Amino acid sequence: MSSIKTTVKTEACSFSEYRIYPGRGQKYIAKDGKVYFYLSSKFASLALQKKKAAKLRWTQAWRRNNKKTKVEATQRRRYKKTIKVQKAVCGLTVEDIRNRKAYVQSIEAKNKARLASKEKDDKKKGKDDKKKNIVQFQRKKDLNKSNRINMAKTKMHKMMKK
């Protein structure tokens, strides 16, 4: 006799999650085309009555929900970190690309610094201009007030003369 091991293809019961060996159980095909395998008529009957397996104490679903069986611990997958790699493109070497990149970055940094200093100066000017504008506005307001008073006086004089 030879020591050859053969494996038997088993299915899992759709209700109890027990193993179904060949020649056992029944296959149920629902109207939507989904296929269910049941170990015995008891499981088929319970499933067709729409009983929940998680509420029956003898099912694997109930045991899993109530932590009666050990569930295999799944390890987190460790992903490799992606690394950026620069390659030569269109006749340019990697060094040329790096030099261009550094040159562009230096120009951008200078522009950024120049803009920041310009904004700073504009803010200073803006504060001074604001003060000037307030003073000018007050003067205009006073002038308008005095003009209105003068106009009212002239109207009164004209009316009195008549």
Automatic annotation (TrEMBL):
Q: Which residues form the Large ribosomal subunit protein eL24-related N-terminal domain?
A: 9-72
Keyword field contains Ribosomal protein: yes
Domain of life of the native organism: Eukaryota
Put simply, this protein is called 60S ribosomal protein L24, putative
Identify the keywords attached in UniProt to this record, alphabetized. Answer: Ribonucleoprotein, Ribosomal protein
Q: Which organism is it from?
A: Plasmodium relictum
- According to the record, the residues making up region (Disordered) are 113-162
Q: Which GO terms describe its biological process?
A: cytoplasmic translation
Family indicated by similarity: Belongs to the eukaryotic ribosomal protein eL24 family.
**Can you name one GO molecular function term for this protein?**
structural constituent of ribosome
- Cellular compartments per GO CC: cytosolic large ribosomal subunit
Q: Which Gene3D superfamilies match?
A: 6.10.250.1270, Ribosomal protein L24e (2.30.170.20)
Q: Where is the composition biased (Basic and acidic residues)?
A: 116-132
